[in-house]
Amino acid sequence: MPMFSGFYMGEISATFRQKAKQHGVNLIMIRAGDSRDFTLPIALTQLSALIVVQHCAGTSYVKSATELGIPVFSMGASYAPLPVEQLCSDQISGVEQLYDWLLALGHRNIGFCGDLSVNDIRSRFNAFKQRVDTQRGEGFHSSQLYCVDSCSLSAGRKAASDWLNTVGNECTAIICATDENAIGMIEQLQRNGIRVPDDVAVVGIDNIFSGMSVTPALTTVDQQLEELACKAFERALARIAGAPFQEEVIHVEQKLVVRQSCGNRASVADASDASQSVRQAMVYESRYSSSELFDTLYSIAKDGFDSILDACSLYQCNLAWAELNRYDGDALSLLKVSFLEQQSLQSRPANSALRTLSDLPCVAGDRPYVVSVLPVHRGERDCWDIVTAVENLDGRQYIGKSALFYNYLDILSLFVERDALIETSVQRHKKSQQLLQQLKVVLNSSNDGIWQWDLLANRLSWNGRLTKMLKLADTSDAINPQVLLNRVHPDDRPAFEEMLQTYLDVSEPFKCILRLRRDDGHYIWVQLSGAVIHNTQGRPIRLVGSMTDITEQQESADKIHQMAYYDGLTGVANRRKLMEVIEHHIQHHPNSTKAVMMMDLNRFKIINDTFGHQVGDALLCHVAEALQQTLRAEDIIGRFGGDEFVFFCDVQNAYQAHELANRLLRAVKRPMQYDNMELVGEASIGVAFYPQHGVDGDELIKNADVAMYRAKQLGGGEVVLFNSNMHEPFKTHLRIEHLLGLAIDQGEIQVHYQPVFSRQHDHIIAVEVLARWHSATLGQVNPSEFIVVAENSFLIMKLGDYIIDRVCQDVKTSPWLQNLQHISVNVSARQLGHSRFADNLAQKVNDYGLPASLFCLEMTETAAMADKEQCLRTLIALKNAGFTLSLDDFGTGFSSLSLLKRLPISEVKIDRSFIADIEAHPANLSFVKGLISMVQSLGHRVVAEGVETESQTQLLRALGVDLMQGFYLARPASLREFEQRFADTEPREKEET
């Protein structure tokens, strides 16, 4: 855990001690600090379970524990994807309780104050916003949000000032994201004559100790830390006993604590002050005033490790022994041991000098104990002092006394760190004196330029290396400093002069990077380092330092930065750069409205696949250049990959957003000339506003993408502003996807067959397999709907396998199907794009003992164009395996004619849209006739689908079409209905075509 004491950690550590004594188990607590990078493998071989509080342990420490088979639990943080069970206080429930309570008190316009750069605060705000949207017809308005830059008292005072300065403010109650924000807000409001809660109610979250003592007492929600710690401890015991890993996060509901700041007049018991609670014991058992407590803790702890026995006596701890170890990266050595009685050392192993970090602490004996471990960094890499205090858990435990002892240990760690850093500093000073003489020798032979500026004489001198670096013609040993200043690049000079002026008044070394002009006129990048030397009166008298030519490194760094933050093709910002810009704006300007626009080029994939990647890349560069010329200086453009562009724009409302977006759409339409070819782009744009439509970059991008998808559905070339209702189609899509997966597993998908007739309309030549789904939940689902869902969710592979299995099973039991010329089965782009599809299909048909020649595989032109190279390889493999191939919906694609020559097909199906219009105009008839003639001239069989009338049948027969299919001839039906309907009709012999 980060520390042992305080409002949050003190209650958790006290609860752990109480649970350890209750269950008679040993407890090791490590004070890891709050930098989230604690990786020392302390105690790993001692642990049966590990509980991490607030992400204080580094990922490598947690991973090591899981690899050793230790059950790991996290309170308030996620270590995904590691197998760590997570427990957390339910932030949503607390906000909802506060909001509902204020509503019950008559408040209708409730505001929110918080620092949205903090993850937990954003969760609380999202819960608040959702509650507002639910309770108020007009939904959340930005005037209800008071953004601050921290969770402190001062931030609360700023929010109060914002509330006071808001003209016509309608908020009568404010929910503050933390108690400190709330207390600061109350203080500032009262200073300005605002009565809380009469004029405005203020409530907080966290239930810190000081909330009870302010006037009026603060209404808040308690995070139920004791319950959270108990659940974590109990889960650890359960896992040790053999319980399985629980993936679902355990949420502990927060509890409303009603006091007076909300406007409540009745006397209500404090929900956090149960007489038996750990918090109650911590507050009242100690009996110390705050000043007395600080003075006592400070006066004892300042003596370092040697004071631990005094603290033990003062706070009545059952200390067995304590020790101070040093770890230097390789070995662990014992420095000191403290104990009250000799017999208490019986639990300390005699061979402690041989221990490793993983074995620390090593305690012998059967008595239950609690060990407190305080690792303190010595200021040098892999160098630590480690304090270990071992207490016996038998005998009576005083929560308040133990809490005071943990306060002492937290302060002790600071003094141990002080002593360690002083010792390290002394050792470094000795080393620096030894190095000083060596440095004097090195300076004259250094590759760096060494310089010295005498401020009293105003003369600058340097060594020969700097003369060569700048290719100086004047080799004088000393010059006027202005000569060097004049060589600084004009863009770098103001910052350089400001830095010099700043560091003249301090003793710290300085370092900067700038460009200097050589005598030949070229600029080089140099790293300038130095320090100011002061006289005994503290006046600066000299600057000394070095100069290194870093031109090559800087140019490499510039290239790396360009590659890391900018798109290699178009030169605009990439996803990483744009996301950082958005997050920076949210963090530093949380109240400033901006828009995220997502743009997608229409039909780009068709252009790319048809004309090649060179043309597609040229179009992307052309569009990017046009967009940059259209955008203003304050807007930024980024490419997220493919044909997606994202803009972060300084617009304040929907009108401005539409105006800018339409300018961008017009820019995309500027024609591009490429090899005697003119291409014109078209795009669709979706818009999401910060903070109305999202409080972080990912949410804004997602919602802008949803709006863009809606714009494409409207036909392209449109601008659509996001609203929350747009998520509904995606929810429907996900619901169908879920139910479709279950339907496939449970055999709900039915196979129907539609006959294909010969030209004479008297013989059935073949059948086409069609999927039908009657869902118990959704009813009859249109194939066009669930097939699209399957293709978009990768269920198409599973559905395709299911259909083939059902058809093969039908063929095995049906002489009717066995005697057909072929059975047509539709395949999708995803199936054709799978490298093993042809082999798997051939193997499956062979396993059923059926010939591949019985099956005709139909694919649309769109499927054939999805991945042309892989598709062609798959089709050739299928044809070689004996399958017949058919091109479906012919005539509707972008490059239909070229496909006829490339694909190894035997059959072409004319799309039903041409058949439907065949009688409307003579030109339509001529067109169909031409299609039939062209396809047959290439040696392919022609099938007309969608035949709906007798007159269409006669016309197609006269045009010489080979086969016909449609509702007029026969509707799709199940195999049983099919066989009953055509029981007296023999299928055409297989040899006939």
> On the 0-100 scale, what is the average pLDDT?
85
Classify the helix fraction into a percent range. Answer: 40-55%
CATH superfamily of the domain at 752-981: EAL domain
> β content, as a range?
15-25%
Largest sheet: number of strands, sense, barrel closure = 8 strands, mixed, barrel
| Number of helices in the DSSP assignment | 33
Radius of gyration: 39 Å
| Structure summary, number of beta strands | 38
What CATH architecture of the domain at 752-981 would you give? Alpha-Beta Barrel
* Structural class category: alpha/beta
Distance between the termini: 80 Å
CATH topology of the domain at 752-981: TIM Barrel
Low-confidence spans: none
Strand line-up in the sheet with most strands: 29-30-32-33-34-35-36-37
What is the CATH domain class of the domain at 752-981?
Answer: Alpha Beta
Oligomer: single chain
Shape: globular
Describe this structure in words.
The chain has 993 residues and is an alpha/beta fold. Among the domains are: 290-368 and 378-384 and 400-418, no CATH class; 449-518 and 526-552, PAS domain (Beta-Lactamase, 2-Layer Sandwich); 566-722, 2-Layer Sandwich (Alpha-Beta Plaits), CATH 3.30.70; 752-981, TIM Barrel (Alpha-Beta Barrel). The protein is 41% helix and 22% strand. The chain contains 33 helices and 38 strands. It has an eight-stranded mixed beta barrel, surrounded by four helices. Strand 30 (764-775) and strand 31 (779-781) form a beta hairpin. The radius of gyration is 39 Å and the shape is globular. One of its GO terms (molecular function) is DNA binding. Residues 733-986 form the EAL domain. Its cofactor is Mg(2+).
